[in-house]
Design brief:
This is 3-methyl-2-oxobutanoate dehydrogenase (2-methylpropanoyl-transferring). Its EC number is 1.2.4.4. InterPro entries: DH_E1 (IPR001017), THDP-binding (IPR029061), Transketo_C/PFOR_II (IPR009014), Transketolase-like_Pyr-bd (IPR005475), Transketolase_C (IPR033248). Its cofactor is thiamine diphosphate. The termini are far apart. The strands form four sheets. Strands 9-8-10-11-13-12-17 form a seven-stranded mixed beta sheet, with helices on both faces. The chain has a five-stranded parallel beta sheet with strand order 1-2-3-7-6, with helices on both faces. Helix content is about 40%, strand content about 15%. By secondary structure, it is of the alpha/beta class. The protein contains 21 helices and 19 strands. Helix 6 links the parallel strand 2 and strand 3 (about 175-180). Helix 11 runs parallel beside helix 16 (about 500-515).
């Protein structure tokens, strides 16, 4: 039964709707003028033609229960949901008081995080995964509400969208996917995007998924569709697609000229289909409001816009000094082991894989709001490819420990989303079975690194992203690569890589107790290595950004991490026996933040530096370490800074190729000896 129609909807509601639609349209038309006056708003995607569905999304959104993920065209959506026109202008002209980002995110990215109107990326469709993650949290915590995610029909071509819909239908999550179909992806018509005229039909075979089609140009049809969708999603705990047929009256944005690809007939048609004008005519035709009443509403809306504009223009600009705020939150500070070392010698040594497994279990017992998922992590007799999560599902249940689809985007994106539900939630994810397979998730990695800064500190994903990394296992091109060189270029993530079992446990514990995003690289060749096995004290902790001097020396500093730490220690011992040379070996443990102080103090003492890592020498992380030493310690150096790492090639499968490519003791020894004799 339809709830809303022109004849029975009460007059006060109709007045409210018309006011919102008039106010939104007035701002939609005014927005380009800010750029023309060099006041900002350099990006504006007009919503005119989407009025019905956008009004409906905002009206159905229930503050305190729902989460809303609006896309860059959703101006009326967020206005209808309760944001003020002043707040929208503050975003448009990038003021410091913009509630979503304080001028850090681009215009037309409207958000109010405290209301759970979420700050989203410009990469279209990515937020569907975040909505699915929120839906998962809603189910787990028994929360009555829905996650509403909105975008155009062309975004459905993105893999993010497929993965989100697939996951939401598999897990039966209360997510409403609103697809505002205006027939274009910028300038590309819909028929060049998908074979089905109605893109929602591409998903018609999904189990547990309801599809509702509506006229997005019609207020009442849109209201009925969104109301039905929300009621159904809550009652049945199932996802819904609302496919809304719209028109795009203007260009894609103010950087697009639609007259280059749309003819006069089409432009005339979309103008005639204007939802605002249609609604106005209906109100008059059915005598629900008079011409005088409509004109008064329009005048009041213009007055509000003028007042809001005046206030927004007077708001402060962002302070350039603030750029370093909210890159990373303050981490958990270890108390029992503040420097991340211990002197325990009694007890049984543990392999690294065991240390990680036991630390995960310990922290899961400590914090019931901790979750883990990934590919193959929850099998009965194993946990992941390397058994790191063995026994966890049996102890903590399948709601906290479960296997994910082979969809790296989905793994990372839903972790981001689940953290949005409540800051007490901490998620550990196995981002891919091997680091080599992580690349499909790179956009979601970027999202996680951006969130805290982009939202001006209002949201930070509490995620530990585990990746089995590196070679020395004969794994070849897709089981042997190191990816930290690429990922360290992106601010907003802590990146750690242990060389020993105790550090693996300590860094993992600190990460799981910290706010923020941590990439936890696990050298898989060390999982069951005797060399990496150590005594692991109970509740051992390692602070971020604190290197560990594994061997003290005076003649040469070796800076290393991961697999190559063990090679460096062996080489240092060999050099001591052969020539009496004293080599200091620093295991940095933490790439970001980097303990420059320990490195610099060592170089001051030895005057020589050798940077060693498994990753490629060219563009590897060691280049940054070497550059810092060369810049800051130049006057203390007696020789050039040297690096040892992999060749600038992939890691080959044949053992002879792997040996030729990866660093080993002989390569490190040769470089060290050359430096010592310099």
């Amino acid at each position: 039964m339809k709830k809303y129609d022109i004849k029975t909807t009460d007059v006060e509601t109709l007045k409210k709707w018309y006011y919102l639609m008039s106010l939104g349209r007035a701002l939609d038309e005014k927005a380009p003028s800010y750029q023309l006056q060099s006041l900002g708003w350099s990006y504006h995607a007009p919503y005119a033609g989407h009025d019905g569905i956008q009004l409906a999304i905002g009206q159905v959104f229930t503050k305190g229960e729902d989460f809303l993920f609006p896309y860059y065209r959703d101006m009326l959506t967020v206005l209808s949901a309760g944001m003020t026109v002043e707040e929208l202008i503050l975003n448009g002209i990038s003021k410091a008081t913009d509630p979503g980002s304080a001028g850090r995110h681009m215009s037309n990215h409207f958000a109010k995080p405290e209301w759970h109107i979420e700050n989203i990326s410009s990469a279209t469709g990515t937020h569907d995964l975040h909505a699915a993650g929120v839906g998962r949290a809603m189910v787990y915590y028994g929360h009555k509400g829905v996650a509403i995610t909105s975008h155009g029909e062309s975004a459905t071509s993105e893999g993010f969208v497929y993965e989100a819909v697939n996951g939401a239908s598999l897990e039966r999550l209360p997510v409403i996917f609103v697809w505002q179909d205006n027939g274009y992806g910028i300038s590309v018509p819909k028929e060049d995007q998908t074979a089905n005229r109605k893109v929602a039909d591409n998903f018609s075979g999904f189990k547990n998924l309801k599809i509702i089609h509506c006229n997005g140009k019609d207020v009442f049809d849109s209201m009925n569709a969104m109301t039905e969708a929300r009621e159904y999603a809550i009652a049945n705990r199932n996802p819904v697609i609302v496919h809304a047929n719209c028109v795009r009256i203007g260009s894609h944005s103010n950087s697009d000229k639609h007259t280059l690809y749309r003819d006069e007939n089409e432009l005339a048609y979309v103008k005639d289909a204007d939802p605002l004008m249609k609604f106005r005519r209906m109100l008059l035709r059915y005598k629900r409001l008079t011409e005088e009443e409509l004109q008064k509403i329009e005048a009041d809306a213009k007055k509000e816009l003028i007042a809001a504009n005046r206030k927004a223009m007077a708001a402060p600009e962002p302070d350039p000094k603030s750029i370093f705020d909210f890159v990373l939150p303050e981490p958990y500070e270890p108390k029992k082991y503040p420097d991340g070392t211990h002197d325990q010698v009694e007890g049984e040594k543990a392999f690294m894989v065991t240390a990680i497994n036991e630390t995960l279990k310990s922290e899961f017992r400590r914090d019931p709001n901790t979750f883990i998922w990934g590919q193959d992590v929850a099998n009965k007799d194993k946990g992941g490819v390397f058994n790191v999560t063995k026994g966890m599902q049996q102890e903590f249940g399948d709601a906290r420990v479960f296997s994910a689809p082979i969809a790296e985007d989905y793994i990372v994106g839903t972790a981001n989303g689940m953290c949005r539900f409540d800051p007490k939630i901490h998620v550990v994810i196995e981002g891919a079975e091997f680091a080599d397979y992580f690349w499909p998730a790179i956009e979601q990695y970027v999202e996680c690194t951006h969130e805290y800064w982009r939202s001006n500190g209002k949201f930070v994903p509490n995620i530990t992203l585990r990746l089995a990394s590196g070679g020395y296992i004969g794994g070849g091109l897709y089981h042997s690569q190191n990816i930290e060189g690429a990922l360290t270029t992106l601010p907003g993530a802590r990146i750690v890589c242990p060389s020993f079992a105790d550090d693996a446990a300590g860094l993992l514990r600190t990460s799981m107790r910290s706010r923020g995003f941590t990439l936890f690289l696990e050298p898989k060749a060390l999982y069951n290595s005797v060399d990496a096995a150590t005594i692991v004290p109970e509740d051992f902790e390692v602070p971020f950004g604190k290197a560990r001097i594994r061997r003290e020396g005076t003649d040469l500093t070796m800076i290393t991490y991961g697999n190559t730490t063990h090679f460096c220690l062996s080489v240092a011992e060999r050099l001591a026996k052969e020539g009496g040379w004293s080599v200091e070996v620093i295991d940095i443990r933490s790439l970001i933040p980097l303990d420059k102080e320990t490195i610099f103090e060592s170089v001051k003492k030895t005057s020589k530096a050798l940077v060693v890592h498994e990753d490629k020498v060219f563009s590897g992380f060691g280049a940054e370490v070497a550059a810092n030493i060369g810049t800051e310690m130049f006057r203390h150096l007696d020789a050039p800074v040297r690096r040892v790492g992999s060749t600038f090639t992939p890691v080959g499968f044949h053992p002879a190729l792997e040996r030729a490519i990866l660093p080993d003791e002989e390569k490190i020894y040769a470089a060290a000896k050359e430096l010592l004799e310099y």
